[in-house]
Fold:
Amino acid sequence: MLIKDAGSRRLVEDILCTEANYEAIFQKTTLMLLEKRSPLASVDDRYQCDWISELSNAPWMVFLLQKRADAQ
Structure:
């Protein structure tokens, strides 16, 4: 992954955890997935960036979790 706005144009290593991986992790815990969102960047964002693919591909996911009722 190349971070363009950090002052250094060096490559950094990233770890991929797929949506299916996250869901499997949640199932092994006392957490229940309530909602997931994949926000896209916008040309109207207050941060002025040269978006590459973030306008059409969400750069992150947000998971809303709740402790399961049967959890101790």
Notes: The chain has a mean pLDDT of 85. The chain has one domain: 1-72.
